[in-house]
Structure to design on (398 residues):
């Protein structure tokens, strides 16, 4: 019994470490937009568009990474993701230019986070823990991942100030390499029965069609679009928005506060999925976010107001991830959880691509983000409606 508990905790801790490093690194991207523009003469619009492309590449790679993790083992997918993430960051660090930013920051880091981030990793946690504690442990792994978001932001901010943006990218690439040894602890090889039952890459298109034909999975997927749309915009453009509002120091502080408040928030949301229907909780999260965004946009930013906004958003920042995993597992079971989460997550990243990309276009041509805040509110309220329209499964899976 003690050996089994130790094995479960080892998987949860390793999963949290992988999520922490991968999501922590990408949480810093918004800090590089203006420094890289100044240091290397790169247009802020190009950098913002590359980060938008990162979101799209992440979304397109996530179903493939999830399916491969279900069939061959999440740990192998995580190790490959760590390599891609380090390569993408290193390309920008050692060969800064428009092409390297698009390929490295836009494509390779997206593929890297798809492997080492939440998708395959949390599916492995779900398979490793007993049903009674599944939501709590997935939430705990997500919460542990928030430590990286809180720690990486000040680390990157200090590096940018001390050694410059490209050297700071090299430091993040080195940190990403730590994912590779961590991966060995995360379901390196699934059970033979699970591997045979998983759809794999060949069965992924048919699996996706069946899932999306389910009305309630389609509503869940549509709601996840809003999550990516809102969070990608804030991750990439909130520091620049605050600089334009005369609060340049608050960019890094607000992103750090998001990571800190996300630690208890993710755990509570994961634990709630064991007691509350996940779609109801997801709808509440999107409503809270939309109200917070509306209030923040309608008032003149101050240091205190920004911190309150970051705390509220941080508390529900990654809470959608354990709840979405729980909703999929209840509807379809665990065998293809990584692949199905990836299908749902593609919608999230299309939203992220549009949110980050639209912000990049606005700052390039309008010089501010004023027109974008009402759109984020409408998208969030629509996600609340979609999740509250979803019906519970006729028979909940284990």
């Amino acid at each position: 019994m003690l050996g089994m508990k130790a094995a479960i905790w080892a998987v949860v801790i390793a999963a949290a470490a992988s999520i922490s490093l991968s999501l922590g690194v990408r949480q810093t991207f918004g800090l590089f937009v203006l420094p890289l523009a100044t240091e290397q003469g790169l247009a802020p619009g190009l950098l913002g568009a590359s980060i938008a492309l990162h979101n799209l590449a992440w979304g397109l790679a996530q179903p493939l990474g999830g399916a491969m993790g279900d069939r061959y083992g999440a740990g192998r997918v995580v190790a490959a993701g760590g390599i891609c993430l380090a390569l993408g960051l290193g390309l920008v660090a050692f060969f800064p230019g428009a092409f390297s930013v698009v390929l490295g920051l836009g494509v390779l880091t997206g593929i890297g986070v798809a492997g080492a981030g939440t998708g395959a990793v949390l599916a492995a946690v779900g398979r490793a823990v007993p049903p009674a504690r599944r939501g709590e442990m997935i939430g705990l792994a997500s919460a542990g991942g928030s430590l990286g978001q809180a720690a990486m932001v000040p680390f990157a901010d200090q590096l940018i100030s001390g050694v410059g943006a490209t050297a700071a990218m090299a430091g993040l690439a080195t940190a990403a390499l730590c994912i590779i040894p961590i991966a060995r602890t995360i379901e390196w090889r699934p059970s033979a029965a699970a591997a045979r039952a998983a759809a794999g890459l060949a069965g992924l298109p048919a699996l996706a069609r069946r899932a999306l034909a389910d009305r309630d999975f389609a509503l869940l997927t549509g709601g996840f679009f809003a999550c990516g749309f809102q969070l990608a915009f804030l991750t990439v453009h909130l520091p620049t928005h605050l600089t334009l509002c005369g609060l340049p120091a608050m960019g890094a502080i607000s992103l750090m506060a998001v990571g800190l408040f996300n630690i208890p928030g993710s755990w509570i949301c994961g634990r709630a999925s064991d007691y509350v229907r996940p779609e109801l909780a997801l709808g509440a999260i999107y409503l809270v976010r939309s109200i917070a965004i509306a209030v923040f946009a309608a008032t003149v930013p101050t240091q205190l107001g920004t911190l309150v906004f970051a705390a509220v958003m941080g508390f529900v920042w990654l809470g959608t991830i354990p709840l979405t995993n729980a909703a999929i597992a209840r509807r379809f079971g665990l065998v293809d959880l990584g692949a199905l989460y990836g299908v749902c997550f593609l919608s999230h990243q299309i939203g992220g691509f549009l949110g980050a990309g639209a912000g990049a276009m606005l700052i390039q041509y309008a010089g501010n983000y004023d027109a974008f805040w009402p759109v984020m509110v409408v998208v969030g309220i629509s996600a609340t409606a979609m999740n509250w329209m979803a019906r519970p499964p006729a028979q909940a899976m284990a």
Q: What stands out?
A: The longest helix spans residues 134-163. DSSP finds 18 helices and no strands in the chain. The two ends are 21 Å apart (CA to CA). The domain at 2-389 is CATH 1.20.1250.20 (Growth Hormone; Chain: A;).
